[in-house]
Amino acid sequence: MLQPSTPDLAPDNASNGDERMDIQLPGPIAAYFEADRSRSVDAVAACFRDDAVVTDERRTHAGREAIRRWKTEASTAYTYAVEPIALSEDEGRTVVTGRVAGNFPGSPIDLRYVFRLDGDRIASLEIVP
Question: What share of the chain is helix, strand, coil (3-state, %, to 5)?
Answer without folding.
Answer: 25, 40, 35
